[in-house]
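Thread: adenosine-5'-diphosphate complex, take 2
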Amino acid sequence: MDVLEILKTIYPAWLGRLSHQLARGEGIRQVFLAQLNSFYQRLIQTVETGNPAWLDPVLDEWVRARTESELDEHESSISTVLDKMLALTYDVAVENLEGSDALQLLGAVLPAFTHAFQYTTSQETAQHIEHISSQLNLARDSMERLDKSKSDFISIAAHELKTPLTLIEGYGAMLRERLTITEPGDQTEILLRGIDNGTRRLREIVDDMIDVSMIDNDMLALNFQPLWTNRLLEVIQHEFNEIVEERHLDLEVRPFPGSREMTFGDNERLYQALRNLISNAIKYTPDGGKITVDGRQLPGFIELTVQDTGIGIDPENHARIFEKFGRVGNSSLHSSGKTKFKGGGPGLGLPITKGIVEAHGGTIWVESEGHDEINCPGATFHVLLPIRKEPPDEKIARLFRASIEAENLEELI
Ligand code: ADP
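Output below.
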């Protein structure tokens, strides 16, 4: 018998068997019957023309009909159905046809099924990729919204806190003027110092919040001036002298090639960034530890390193600590202080430092084997800063032309 004739002959048996086996329930069976019928007609055309693309429209319809949960679970429901369809076609052929006709039929439909498997697999994969990327987009949108809310919160809270804080500072100063302090260490003096310390700390936090919201909104304006890294580091080292002594730390600032060279940058902001790194090194290093500030000159850049022998940071947190509120560990265990051991703050120092370094065209990263408060593996923060022989703004360049020329002359000599 001709293969097309065979196909037409077994159609009723094929349809009955498949609809019975594959569709449960009368309602579903009706819909499924129509689908099977359409598939079978296209199967006949495929065999007749030798072109399996005839099946594609039905297969496309099946791929499109997949539910969200099937997509979430990455199930290939269509391959399973095709698998069963092929097995049942084989059963129907064996039961209803002579051996040679059955073989002829299977030989004719097998390439069509092979194509159907390949086609649906590739369509399903494409559909999966689309589904996953749309889920990623949704997740990214919601992360961006969350980050924006965080940013807005910081900015609003900082501005709301500024006014009462200014009032407390003002009244504190007035109180100090009115009260007579008889001798140092007097009870009134201690109380006033307490108010001063509290307001100063609060002012630092509010200022950090304002800085973070400026960085978030690309509003950090840099004031480019000539600067010398060694001088900045000297000032910071001097500032920490007392606490370093108190906590028996060794803070070494090594001279390195390039540190004595003039470069253009924002003195105040870079001072703030480097101070944050050194104050963190102090905070997260137990008493008796060592902090080393070093660096090297690279073509067009200087690389500064702040290395400590402290508690270290787990590699999985190396990126997170540069995000706002990215402090790690149990917040209830943090004592609040700028230089006490583990005296954590709100987790804004490193995002500000990163913002300042990046605004200068530099990068910052950390290296540390891990976090271990017993063995103290330490951490090393790297700051890569471009050396600028001229400020980016032409007006400022004109202002400093004389000092640039003097510096160039010194280099020549
Ligand atoms: P914080 O105000 O909490 O110090 P930072 O933004 O300066 O905030 O630092 C974020 C977190 O990074 C800290 O809470 C701390 O867990 C970790 N960290 C920063 N510097 C160091 C360091 N030198 N050694 C170990 N951990 C550090």
